[in-house]
Amino acid sequence: MRDGIIMEVGAGSLVPEVLMLKHEGYRLVQICATKTEKGYELTYSFGQAYKLVNLRLKLAPGAEVVSISDIYEPAFLYENEIHDLFGIKVRMMALDYEGNLYRIDQKNPFQ
């Protein structure tokens, strides 16, 4: 049972884990980014009934991540936000605003 866990995943295993959760009937709840001393952490949260599963991905500065928007379409909004605010490159987004999701004075203010 995966309820309430935080699973650390590598960039290469993110998409397979997300596909498995989709196949098990989980929905995307949120994607959150935060800056750390060594780079960034992305937390992908998925829910099913009253169960919550989190996938945590640690990224070095300048690292890229593959989009999950072809699996969960609404992910493109979170991914564009992460790109705009943190400067994290997200490859193969279903809809890429190319850094223009938000009108902000400073590019990548949380970088």
How many discrete structural domains?
A: 1
Task: Note the gap between the termini.
Answer: 36 Å
Helix content: 10-25%
| Total strand segments | 6
The CATH class: Alpha Beta
| Main beta sheet strand tally, sense and closure | 4 strands, mixed
* CATH architecture designation: 2-Layer Sandwich
Would you identify the regions where 5 or more consecutive residues have pLDDT less than 50?
A: none
Which structural traits does this protein have?
NADH dehydrogenase (ubiquinone) activity, EC 1.6.5.9, two-stranded parallel ribbon, oxidoreductase, Beta Polymerase, domain 2, globular, four-stranded mixed β-sheet, 2 helices, 20% helix, alpha/beta, 111 residues
Description:
The chain is an alpha/beta fold and 111 residues long. The protein has one domain: Beta Polymerase, domain 2 (2-Layer Sandwich). Helices cover 20% and strands 36% of the residues. It contains two helices and six strands, in the order E-H-E-E-E-E-H-E. The strands form two sheets. The protein has a four-stranded mixed sheet with strand order 1-4-3-2, with helices on one face. One of its GO terms (molecular function) is NADH dehydrogenase (quinone) (non-electrogenic) activity.
Short précis:
With 111 residues, this protein is an alpha/beta fold.
SSE diagram, text form:
Blueprint: E1 5-9, H1 14-23, E2 27-36, E3 39-48, E4 51-59, E5 64-66, H2 75-86, E6 89-91
Pfam family, one: Complex1_30kDa
GO molecular function, one term: NADH dehydrogenase (ubiquinone) activity
InterPro entries: NADH_quin_OxRdtase_su_C/D-like (IPR037232), NADH_UbQ_OxRdtase_30kDa_su (IPR001268)
